[in-house]
Amino acid sequence: MLLMKSKLALLTLLGMLLAGPAFAQPLPYHVDPSAREILPSLTPVPAIRFLTTADFPPFNFRDAGGELIGFNVDLAKRICAEVNVACTIQAWPWEQAANALEDNQGDALIAGLAMSTENGASFDFSSTYLALPGRFVTRAPDIGVFDPTRLSGKTVAVRTGSAHENFLKRYLPTVKIAPYASEILALDAVRGEQVDAFFGDAMRASFWLNENLTCCGFAGDPYFRPDLFGEGLAVAVPGGHDTVRHAIDWALVKLKDNGALDELYLRWFPVGFY
Length: 274
Fold this sequence. Notes:
The protein is of the alpha/beta class. The protein folds into two domains: 7-131 and 231-268, Periplasmic binding protein-like II (D-Maltodextrin-Binding Protein, domain 2, 3-Layer(aba) Sandwich), CATH 3.40.190; 134-228, Periplasmic binding protein-like II (D-Maltodextrin-Binding Protein, domain 2). The protein is 34% helix and 20% strand. The protein has helices at residues 7-12, 14-19, 71-83, 94-102, 117-120, 163-171, 183-191, 202-210, 226-229, 242-257, 260-268, and strands at residues 47-52, 55-56, 60-62, 68-69, 86-91, 108-109, 123-125, 134-139, 155-159, 176-180, 197-201, 216-223, 236-238. The two termini are 21 Å apart. The relative contact order is 0.21.
């Protein structure tokens, strides 16, 4: 998985992410309400061995002291606490993490493994705990008057070859598309008034906005299109390990109900992307 921004740049944002205020914002809700009725049998799950990586801030990375931290790390700990089982979290290099799970080095991988057909042949996935919508970003004065139906003839920056570029071509064919090599360059073009707006992955854009709050912001509503933008983030488990998967799904529902999932989201994403 590509880093949502360079590792160095995101690490410089850590102080803001941990200490900055939580702005009023919509909160994610992706858990299946029917999972409330699935009470996990904890006898076969005495512990959950989570695997992750250490190079994907703010989800899973090491702080200046070498401690493994991040949204996924905190979520794994909360899942274990909710299910009331022992918990370990071990970091692996990204290129080895999936193989380690397949080789029974862990019970679950919480590191953004794509829910692709290829991965589905080896792994099962929990319910989605964080979807990844597409969103527009405009300069601050344009946010209040933004209307996606009035973008005809306007120039919108996108990452070249992205699903978001394809979305614009399919659904807003009268928009002038300005392709850039990366989301950061495309967003910089909005700030520099070279384009009218940006459209792309909202999560990645949220980190750029952390450094550009006075300039720009999200405009309009989020676009949830799993067929185009992916199904979001879920926990991978070895195929057939239903007891662990059911326990995780049940914990996700409970964590949403008791507010813990919202607390983690607000802590790690002060500029929310919903």
